[in-house]
Amino acid sequence: MAKVNPKFSAEIKKYGADDFSACFNCGTCTATCSLSDEKTSFPREMVRYSALGLESEITSSLKPWQCYYCGECSTDCPRKANPGELMMSLRRWLTAKYDWTGLSGILYKSFAALLISMVLVAVGVIAVAFAKDFKLEEIIHFGHYFEMYAIAGVFALILLPNIIRMWYFAVIKPGKKIPFKVYVSSMADLFIHMFTQKRALGCDNNQTRWFAHFILVIGYLTLLFTTVFLDWFSSTSIFVVVLGYVVSAIVFVVTFFFVLSRVKRKTEATKHSRPSDWMFVAWLFLMGITAFAVRLFIDMDILDMNLWLYILHLIILAQWALIIVPFGKWTHFLYRSFAIYFEKLLEGGK
Amino acid sequence: MKERIGVYICHCGGNISDYVDVEELGRMFHKEDGVVVSKDVMFACADSNQKEMVEDIKNFNLDAIVVASCSPKLHLHTFRNVASRGGLNPANYVQVNVREQCSWPHSDNPREATIKAAGLIRAGIKRVSHSQGLDNIELTVKKSALVIGAGVSGMKAAIDLARLGNEVYLVEKDFFVGGHIVQQESLFTTGENSKEIVLKLYKELKSHRNITLFTGATIEKVTGSLGNFHIDIKIRPRYINTKANYDLVVKALNECPVYVEDEFNLGLVKRRAIYKNYPDAMPNIPVADIEVLKSSPETMLKYADILDINQQDELLSFIAGGVLVTTGFDSYMPNSGEYGYKSSPYVLTLPEFNRLTELSGNKLVYKNREIKSVAYIYCVGSRQSKGENRYCSRSCCTSAIFSSLNIKEKYKEIISYHLFRDIRTYGKQETLYEKSSAQGDIYIRFEEKEPPVVEFNGKSNIIKVKDYLSAKMELEIEADMVVLVTGMVSRKESANISEKFKIPIGSDRFFNEIHPKLKPVETVIKGVYIGGCCQGPKNISESVQSSLSAAAKINALLKSGTVSIDPVTAVINEDVCSWCGKCEIVCDYTAIKERDINGKKIAMVNKAICTGCGICAPICPVNAIEIAQYSDLEIESMIDGFIQKIELEVKDESKESKEETEVLKMKEYPQLWKDIIQKIGESKKTIPQLSRELSCKSEIVTYNLMTMNKYGIVTAEGMDEDEAYYYYKVKNR
Questions:
Q1: List of chain A residues whose C-beta atoms are within 8 Å of the C-beta of residue B439
Q2: How far apart are CA B672 and CA B294, in angstroms?
Q3: How close does chain A come to B401, measured CA to CA in Å?
Q4: A1 touching B, CB under 8 A?
Q5: In the CATH hierarchy, which fold is given to the domain comprising B669-730?
Q6: Residues of A in contact with B473 (CB under 8 A)
Q7: How many angstroms separate the CA atoms of B79 and B94, rounded?
Q8: Is CATH 3.30.70.20 the right assignment for the domain spanning B566-628?
């Protein structure tokens, strides 16, 4: 027996959803959704759960992650209940729910908290630079190690436990017994979807968006690899240097268009940007462009005179690594692919 | 016995003649006894043909006519008028339906269709030969109307009837006017104040000198009939001394220390024994509950100046030409335990809840508990597929949603759950539903077979329901208050009214109209009309609409001072009747009464009341009753005519060669066909072109062109550029 919780709709509205109460359950959204089928039927189901405030049903559901926000449901909704944006809000809410620290929820709901945390990280980076007497060499050295430790730390302390929590909510708590064999055999899907978001190709007219996204993911991951493992900023290998230029350029060029589309607000997906959405694309853009500039200044041998450029890059990097990656929209990258993996598990690996 | 009969058999452009050989029939009935003229005609209803018939009646000195064409529902009056214009009595006309009864249903068997038509026409000829010329019955009517019930429907109708110059008697059972609507604070969809509306109507009512309003009055006895209903009413006393100082009366109204259950507020509070329903209730004369006051002698003594305990029931009688019944409805009362009603302390019906919210201040409190969440359960007492009330009560969905919007406005934090079966906020009311769901009201759909279960856990109501919008998931809702959205049922007293006026009651126990679409406010009792919710559930606008249309009907009836009614009534053969009383018992309309004529007891028919239903005729043991225009002679002769052998050379369709159909000639084309032929000329034209050039509706052009095509007058040739329409050209012969 599920208990109706009328307060839930007020809660989910803090995550961006607004008009979903207007829903009169016609099901047009589900009919129009190109990803919804008999097996996984949404978004109406999620709209219904949200209206009734059935938290445990939503927490155990993987469906919000299977939507890639083409926005057709919102365009076609006869009540203008905006189901697409509700799905987005549920993703934010789920992110907060999975996060054991509870920081995600605070940062999603409170813009002030987000701002303060960003400023604190910036101040911290400047403090480190101060401690290093503003010596470029040392700061770059610190930056490189910071990147490595931050990645390892965030993954071990935040992301891994959160994914385990997601697994617990979606697979274990509903009482599904999954043989170990299935865990192994389904693994391929996890990685395919993590790197390609193949499922998003099922959305109508989504090829361009999917391709841009695909390029960005590859670019971003390569940039990460180049800076962290190939030590781009210190490398002398011409191959590594050029690769770094190319991938950082890909990152800022693609994100530039993403930022632009959010400014233009022409599609359903870009109409309702929240701070977390802006932050994600903007910081990715800034990261790409500052990394590009830093390496350019190194090659032109003028970084010494432009020490603050590197500090700025490091601030952006630190904010990205400590806030956006563990608590922000970056996690969607993981949750989406794990959702497909868990879904596969629940189906028994078929 | 009519011996100069004219018979006209219609082609209906082909609708009949495609399957029934009307030309052959026309020839055949020439030889029939008593028939002087027998013709087949292209369109019997066409003006040119009507003129021809009128001329035939005069030229051939016809004494009766038969038209074999379509259903009498369509053209009975057309041809009765033709008979009148030719100088015949309209009753000497018989219509035979050979389209709906022959050509259309038997298109698969033209030969049999023709034989059946021949039989029916012969029966018609036999019947008309025995027809009597009957004149309509003329009655004088009194130019006054009785309106029963001073709710919003009755008041509006009374005002309009009075404005049109009729004397109006408005009888209200309660001591105050307004009916149900004043029990609701504001009215959907406009949010107007119901009490202001009633006050406005009352003032208007009072401004008409030809309206007499009786409050606290009931109908005691009704005799007479259409045009002259004799009405006896009884007026209950208010026990307030009419000569008393009004200030003292007001003082008593505000200070009387004796309290009784408040019916107006549906028992939610107590009221004083000297009372008005609400401060602005009209007429502005309080009422004293004298029986209750008697138990408190000191109060009686205190208010001795203003009370008049000697007042008695007053009996009055008057004559009304027409009657409008607007007695309204009762709200459905749930059974004890139905959705927790009476068994849980926090379950109310919607009307009760509306009284509660109106009486509440800035906190919604009931039985010492602040109400913060409300669950509305819809369709209580309506749409019972197995119960008595199968109908939808039409207004309750909107009413409940409107209430939830209002209390949300008054008490911002309140949470509303709507447990519904279907939401029927039709028409302009839809916006309310939209507003309510957008404001966050939670809608949960249940099915009748799995209704919600309400339990009280000592703190609040726990409602368990299977939500059909969430794959029948079992949900649990906690709500401080459960509101049962109750529908309408017929008034308890409607059986009484029905008995007095003989208004039939339907299986839903509301009053029955004659026809829901074509005679929606008329009853089978001539002169008695129904308006508003006594006829079935309606919202306020619909109630007023129906009562105003009934008012217009009554005005039309009373306007000329006389009324002409159909002569189809029971006729008593006075020589044969020896009064056994059986006919009086079976008559539903009390149209038959015993009369003494020169010492002989016989039955008498009140023609103003009799509807010609015919139930009395077969019951009469001595066969003394016949129905005019349906006499035994007429009916028996029809049967004789129908069973007579048809000696008809009907062409067998299968043997008929194709050319024969093609060269089928008609005596004369209708004017439109001639126009079409002329417009097409040597060229070819499409239907829209013809429709434009002839300024004639395209449906009519299409229909005629199809018939012309069938007769081989035109033929289709090629399509226009858009391939949307065929070109037609005149066929060369």
A1: 21
A2: 85
A3: 14
A4: yes
A5: Arc Repressor Mutant, subunit A (1.10.10)
A6: 2, 54
A7: 9
A8: yes
Q: What residue of A is the nearest CA neighbor of B439?
A: A21
Contact A327, A276 (CB under 8 A): no
- Closest by Cα among A17, A18, A15, A169 to A106: A15
Cβ–Cβ gap B438/A48 under 8 Å: no
Task: Residue A22: name the closest of A71, A86, A69 by CA.
Answer: A86
Distance from C-alpha of B86 to C-alpha of B64, rounded to nearest angstrom: 10
The reply to whether CATH 3.40.50 applies to domain B5-134+636-643 is: yes
Non-local CB neighbours of B656 within 8 Å, separated by 6+ positions: none
- Are B443 and A1 within 8 A, CB to CB? no
Question: What is the pTM assigned to this prediction?
Answer: 0.80
Q: Model confidence over B420-451: pLDDT tens digits?
A: 999 999 999 999 999 999 899 999 999 999 99
Q: From the CA of B473, how many Å to the nearest CA of chain A? A: 8
Superfamily of domain B333-487: FAD/NAD(P)-binding domain (3.50.50.60)
**What is residue B650's predicted lDDT score, i.e. its pLDDT?**
53
Domains parsed from chain A with CATH numbers? 8-98 (1.10.1060.10), 103-346 (no CATH)
- Residues of A within 8 A of B468 (CB-CB) are none
Contact of A25 with chain B, judged by CB distance below 8 Å, is answered with: yes
Tens-digit pLDDT profile for residues A280-336 = 999 999 999 999 999 999 999 888 888 899 999 999 999 999 999 999 999 998 999
Query: For chain A, what is the mean pLDDT?
Result: 92
Q: Three-state SS for B457?
A: coil
What local confidence, expressed as pLDDT, does residue B312 receive?
93
Q: What span, in angstroms and rounded, lies between the C-alpha atoms of B408 and A262?
A: 37
Is the CB of residue A60 less than 8 Å away from at least one CB of chain B?
no
Kindly state whether A4 is in contact with chain B, defined as any CB-CB distance less than 8 angstroms: yes
For the record, the structure tokens of A46 come out as: 């999620």
Chain A environment of B445 (Cβ under 8 Å)? 25
Do B5-134+636-643 and B333-487 fold alike per CATH?
no
A4 closest CB neighbour out of B437, B469, B476: B476
**DSSP β-bridge partners for residue B477:** B463
What residues of chain A lie within 8 A of the CB of B475, using their CB?
1-4, 52
Give residue-wise pLDDT tens across range A135-173: 888 898 899 899 899 999 999 999 999 999 999 999 999
Across the range B72-82, mean pLDDT stands at 91
Q: Which residues from chain B sit within 8 angstroms of residue A48, using beta carbons?
A: 469-470
What residues does each domain of chain B span? 5-134+636-643, 144-235+318-328+491-563, 246-310, 333-487, 566-628, 669-730
Torsion, CA A167, CA A173, CA A175, CA A177, rounded to 10? 30
Amino acid at A134: F
A79 touches chain B (CB under 8 A): yes
CATH topology of domain B144-235+318-328+491-563: FAD/NAD(P)-binding domain (3.50.50)
pLDDT tens track for A7-57: 999 999 999 998 899 999 999 999 999 998 887 788 999 999 999 999 999
List of residues 6+ apart from B456 with CB closer than 8 A: B340, B343, B344, B345, B346, B462
Contact yes or no for B442 and A52 at CB 8 A: yes
- Token pair of B556, please? 């039309």
B434 to chain A nearest CA, in Å?
A: 7
Shortest CA gap B360–chain A (Å): 24
- Would the CB atoms of A1 and B475 count as touching at under 8 Å? yes
Is B422's Cβ below 8 Å from some Cβ in A?
no
Which pLDDT belongs to residue B657? 47
Residue A101 forms contact with B (CB below 8 Å): no
Chain A residue with the nearest C-alpha to that of B476: A3
